[in-house]
Design a protein that fits this description.
Blueprint lengths: L5 H15 L11 H8 L3 H13 L3 E4 L3 E4 L5 E3 L7 H5 L4 H8 L4 E12 L2 H7 L6 E11 L2 E11 H4 L14 H7 L6 E9 L3 H7 L7 E9 L5 E10 L3 E3 L7
Parallel strand pairs: 3-10
Antiparallel strand pairs: 1-2, 4-5, 5-6, 6-9, 7-8, 8-9
Helix pairs in contact: 1-3, 2-3
Length: about 250
């Protein structure tokens, strides 16, 4: 007898059907009752199998409708190209440019703006003292009404004070174009990516199912004088984002 739990065996079979295309994107899974009857298992076993697939990002539950194979592909984050000046010149902020180029409807919700003490890791990157005042902008990004990213952006207060950066929409091309209008051209960036499980408030804001990890991406912007002027902490659901890199090799 296999030592694999029944719920895992059911999940394995459903996963194979999804990956092979037998269950196509957008297809509705059988009900828990139907799955239980088909596999000769308890209904609770079917519920556990579906939970496994949800945690893997393969299916999504729609309230009142059932469980469906995920139709929407992950947002392809363009990595080194997303901050290209040509997008800002054309009036496009990075996320909106990415989402719309992939046929997704972009929406940015500004959840908080104001002065805040710099956490130690932000202060270190900006060359400040821990607790020194910075501007903190909190955003939630959605594609086709699905939350795909949280972002906490920290800007040096001596740059942000009294400027349009304290407004929900600082300018038509986003904060980087606004910062460049202040004389801080983005000429270099550093990004550190790690993986972890979401904090409870992050999971709630992103609508994450149990067991779904996130990518934490810390972006630091440097201007033409080599000064770090902005740090953004992005929280990206691992099942809704793809980090794409196309880098030259010397």
């Amino acid at each position: 007898m296999s030592q694999t739990p029944p719920s895992r065996r059911m999940a394995d079979a459903l996963r194979q059907a999804i990956l092979s295309g037998e269950l196509a994107p957008g297809a509705k899974l059988p009900s828990e009752r139907s799955l239980a009857q088909s596999y000769g298992a308890a209904r609770n076993t079917a519920r556990q199998a579906i939970a496994i697939l949800q945690a893997e990002g393969l299916v999504e539950a729609q309230h009142g409708r059932g469980v469906f194979v995920r139709r929407r592909p992950p947002i392809r984050r363009l990595a080194q190209d997303r901050y290209a000046r040509r997008y800002r010149a054309a009036g496009g902020a990075p996320f909106r440019t990415e989402a719309e180029s992939q046929g997704r409807r972009a929406q940015v919700q500004v959840t908080d703006i104001g002065p805040a003490p710099a956490p130690f890791w932000v202060a270190r990157r900006l060359g400040l003292r821990e607790g020194e005042q910075v501007l903190l902008r909190k955003n939630r990004y959605l594609a086709d009404d699905e939350p795909v990213q949280l972002a906490n952006t920290y800007v040096r207060w001596d740059i942000a004070e009294g400027t349009a950066l304290l407004k929900p929409v600082p300018g038509p091309s986003g904060i980087y174009a606004t910062l460049e209008s202040f004389g801080h051209q983005l000429v270099r960036m550093q990004e550190d990516v790690s993986a972890r499980m979401p904090l409870p408030d992050e999971a709630a804001a992103l609508g994450l199912g149990r067991g779904v990890p996130v990518l934490e991406l810390i972006h630091t912007s440097f201007d033409q004088d080599g000064q770090a002027f902005e740090v953004t902490q992005s929280i990206l659901p691992a099942d809704r984002n793809l980090l794409a890199y196309d880098l030259p090799v010397d």
